[in-house]
Amino acid sequence: MNAKNLSERLRLVASFAEQGTVLADIGSDHAYLPCWLIQQGQISRAIAGEVVKGPFESAKRNVAKEGLTDKVVVRLENGLQAIYPDDGVETVTIAGMGGSLIASILENDADRLTGVKRIIVQPNIHAKAIRVWAVSNSWKILNEAILKEDHKIYEVLVLERGDQSYHPEELLMGPLLLRQRSAVFQEKWQGELNEISRVINVLTQSAQSEEAKSKRKQLSDTRDMIERVLKS
Ligand code: SAM
Q1: How many CB atoms lie within 10 A of CB 85?
Q2: What is the pTM assigned to this prediction?
Q3: How close is the Cα of 156 to the center of ligand 1, in Å?
């Protein structure tokens, strides 16, 4: 993958960026996403934020190589601190991390989201953590998508401001993905179901502590919920 030949996963994230928007890509190791969006003429300017020095240097190198230093600013900053008040950022993308880490990045510097109208996230796991964060911070789910690439399944969530509540199964599996029930969605949740059932079996055979019992109960409830949805 490079800035000219973006993965399907990042193309899907990119597809939700509105025409002409100013975008901040947080955790932008190679800055491929912002460079590609600029080259497509889809966004006007971008910030590429990266907290680790090596990936930050690589992002800077790529932006220079693509001749985009006037359009893509690369910053070595933690999370949303890469967004400065005068940037005019309207769209934030955070891709390729766990849902809990993405939710904590959004939570930690919420003041940097002033002026942001759309958040596009692609959690590798635990998308529920982002939905829970969204509900308690007055963001609602505008769109969701799911895709399989290189044997891995990815979800993309698009958030805009607004209040909305969701049922437990919607928080876990995604309100719109649940309605669409694509083949990839079914495959993902059948896989999750198999894994949860395996862990429950291990806990049943090995651990009898109160903590293990409570974990087993929690997993059994989740398994029952997924089973109900897949059968309905
Ligand atoms: N966004 C790219 C993608 O989807 O292909 C890169 C994904 S890479 C697996 C995750 C990147 O996020 C790493 O380069 C990591 O250093 C960076 N990262 C993790 N936590 C971060 C944070 N709090 N602030 C900025 N970058 C972070």
Answers
A1: 10
A2: 0.96
A3: 16
Both tokens of residue 33? 């996403």
**What is the number of the ligand 1 atom nearest to the C-alpha of 96?**
4
- What digits encode the pLDDT tens for the residues 78-114? 999 999 999 999 999 999 999 999 999 999 999 999 9
Residue with tokens 């993902």: 188
Is residue 155 within 8 Å of residue 122, measured between CB atoms? yes
Q: What is the DSSP letter of 45?
A: E
Predicted local confidence at residue 204, as pLDDT: 84
Residue 32 in this model has a pLDDT that exceeds 80: yes
56 CA from centroid of ligand 1 (Å): 10
Ligand 1 centroid, distance to 99 Cα (angstroms): 12
Instruction: Using the atom order of ligand 1, give the atom closest to the CA of residue 29.
Output: 14
Mean pLDDT confidence for 53-68: 97
Query: Pocket around ligand 1: residues whose beta carbon is below 6 Å from it?
Result: 26-29, 49-52, 55, 78-79, 95-97, 105
8 A C-beta contact, residue 110 and residue 137: yes
Q: H helices of the chain, where?
A: 8-15, 32-39, 53-65, 99-108, 127-136, 168-173, 175-180, 183-206, 210-231
DSSP 144: E
Radius of gyration of the chain (CA): 19
Q: Whose CA is nearest to atom 12 of ligand 1?
A: 27
Question: What letters, b where the CB count within 10 A reaches 16 and e where it falls short, cover 28-59?
Answer: bbbbbbbbbbbbeebbebbbbbbbeeebbebb
